[in-house]
Amino acid sequence: MAVIVSNGNTNISTASGFYRVEAHNLSCYSATLLSLSATRTLTFTPANAGNALGVVICLQSGSNVSSMKSVTVTLKEGVTTRATATLTAAQICNSITSANSDGWFVPFTFSAPYAVTTAPATWTIEITNATGSTDWSVRTSNGTAVTYAFWCDNALSFTANDTIICKDVVTVDQATSIKGTLGTGDATNGIAALICKGSTGLAASVSNFVWASAPATAYTLTVDGLVVFGAHSGFRAGTSALPIPAAQMGTIDFVAPTIGTVNGFADTQRNSTVFGRKSSFFIYGAIPTYERTTLAANAILGGTATFVNGSATITKNSHGYSNDMPVHLTTSVSLPTNFAIDTVYYVVNQATNTFQVSATVGGVAIIAGSAGSGTQAVNPVIVTTDTTSWTVGDSIVVGKRNIKGQGDTTSRTINVISGVNIIPSSGISGATAFSGATVAKLNGYGFYIKQNTASTSTTNYLKCPSNFVISGCQIENFTWVIALSSGFSGDDLANQLPVTVSHCSAYNTLNTTTFTFNISANEAGLIFEYVNAYRSCLYGIAPVTYATTMLSLTCRHNRVMSIPGGSYSFSQTSLEVTGNNIENAGSNILMNGTSVTHTNNLYWGSSVSTSPIYSSFIKPVAVSGNSYQNSTTGLNLGNLTLGTIETNAVFSDSANGTTNTTDIFPSASGLVEYEMASPTGNVNVSTTNIPTLVPGSYIRISDNNDTANDDKGFERFGNTQRTGFSLSDTLVHTTGTTFAAASSGKFALRFQSINGTTPLEFSQKVPTGDIANKTMTVGVWCKINNAAYYAGVDILPKLTVNYDNGTLTTATATAGTSGQYLSLTFTPLTSFGQITVTISSATDATTTNAYVYWDDFSILYPAGVTLNLGGLDLWANALPITPTLATLSAAADVWAVAETVGIATTGSMGALAKRVDVNTSDIPTLL
């Protein structure tokens, strides 16, 4: 095993395509850096004599490129200079405008090679700053030993288990393996590949480690250790125009490390919180024609069944099968004769605990020719909505299980597929999979990254990348940590593409809890789309600190199934979340945003009380068509939800009889302004935290359960409900003191307060214009539903008018259950042009005993008063009084409208008004 460095652009298979590294310390993972404010000297002894060509060092910047100094590397023999190389800051950083907090693997190539020997205590390399104002630092392995690799012109061919330094472009074009090398004082980080910076920072040329773009065969790169990226370094497999074909699938397999203790992809700082890493990672693999389909019929839980020799009857208690349902049989030893495994049968003659099967729908029941041996089982056939291009041996998972919490934790191999019928390697376990469930394929992509030889999944640290694009890739047992809540790449926008994960499968077979992707957006944004995630989760955030560019953060058409326990952010900040399915989650899913499109998503089977959370939906662009089903809590409203109107949400699955324990649960102490329009399901709202919400908070539901006029509200101190014609509560004011069943078109307002000391209120601002010294009357009918209302602690129903911007007058109902008319007559003394009318009530009675009905407001303006607010002449609270309407208009207003708006057809008064030469002959045409 050797440490080698590329000899120009080369392939793994190229003879003599590399140089031997004659001295090295590859680890860069000490948190202690060494400033180049002082010269740093490396003393080394070459392993072999040869002509010295150069040295790779790892530089860390502390400021923008414009202020950084140039760097000189000098090879000395004793005190005599033998070779030098100098790079300016712009050359080191590819002329980008910012280089803060980065580790740059930089090759310094000597302009004139010099012959070195293996004589000990002879050779040194000095690293110094030159012109500029800000010093660089060098990274180290243990706080004192500088990271470096020194090479001569001793050519080598690659050998399996070598350690590669990709100074130039190295192409993987055959099956092989690379192995880690430890640095001084570092027993953890075995470096299997170290990727130097590209020739530019542009996405097209930043990668010095690549996969053959048109591989002749499928092959695997086995990695024992870390593949390490510096700033402006990258890995690439395929391109968007030329992805790696599925028939020549590329595989990277990270094995349990034998050198050091960690493996995976990593940048120069791995899990530190320093931002600005600027690495790039690209995988473009072929995408299967069908990545997922849906279940066309319920897949009932399979299980043990009893066969009897000579009988067609099969016994399985409470089997749940229906006639014509396709099933298949499995056995631990052998099936009864006349039956075969991997064969579709159809249920006939079903009863509660027994059934028979036939070779055709509705056909003749098959009689067992023996009882068979071992344990027999009957399992459902997976019936899909599409005929896919899937084949025997493909791996699939099925979602939407009839439980609250993590669903099935076992993927299945296809044993037989015929049209829409799939016989899997094992039956549905855990719980029934309902119609509409995702059936996702995990394999069949052009690239495959895996780690399946250890007990825990591999964690990859490529934080704050300039580019991270994975498309057409199967990802097994990997966690990608590419996130810092306050970090960003700091690269020039020209060097960045949106962080993108698309058309992939990502799954975990080792851990009970995992993120597959824990990603921060870079300045170009973040996209998750068409990902099949199984036993794992997508986590995407936008950093708090970033360039002035507004981030675009998108999650669309992903299928996330059987999520383990934990807390996962599905997306945050300005975002689009569209067409995703989250099927069976033992976790809460967090979503925040200030410019949000949240449409047509399914959240099914969450077992926690906070899934999902809207903690910051502020006047979203669109929230509609989402389904919150079969969960402990369907929808949890977070601490800041402003101006949100959600339409056409679904809270129940009537076909399968599933409901949420709680449909809507507001978090405590927040400000919530949330309206649900036309939801499906009789929506229940938890009132536990509503009294703790900020004043002004509300939850409102219109046309509940798609029922016209079934409108209700949840305020801080009680609930409101529309009553009237065709509703479950028909009570309205009819005549006199009578409240009775409503006739067509009649409705009223019902209060139900939740305590006896703090009233539930409904207020409205009524424009009046200037009615100083004029008398006005406001009245309303009310009815206390039951004498129990005032038997405990209560505040009787009350009508309050606030006029003259602070003067209050009140009318209070008496203790009784007949209809009462509360009225107030008052005379404002100022020109303040509006009044506030409030109705209120409070009681510690519960259920129907707390009801108070309100109906038929009377707002009687003073005699002779007309209301004209269209001129914006009357103001209150620093704004014109609204609505800007006029109950009667002056003649001048009518003429102005006639002349300017177009009421001027031939023969009209408007036409006449527009003319300046009116004659007596025009008059008859107007009569």
Features:
Jelly Rolls, 927 residues, disordered C terminus
Given the C-alpha coordinates, what overall shape results?
A: flat
The major pleated sheet works out as: 11 strands, mixed
pLDDT < 50 stretches = 544-550, 892-905, 923-927
Terminal Cα span: 109 Å
Backbone structural class: mainly beta
Strand proportion: 35-45%
**What's the tally of helices?**
3
Overall number of strands: 73
**Mean pLDDT over all positions:** 89
Oligomer: single chain
Structural notes for this entry:
Helix content is 2%, strand content 43%. By secondary structure, the protein is mainly beta. Among the domains are: 3-218, no CATH class; 760-866, Jelly Rolls (Sandwich), CATH 2.60.120; 891-926, no CATH class. Strands 1, 3, 4, 6, 9, 11, 12, 13, 16, 19 and 22 form an 11-stranded mixed sheet that branches. A hairpin with a 3-residue loop joins strand 67 (794-803) and strand 68.
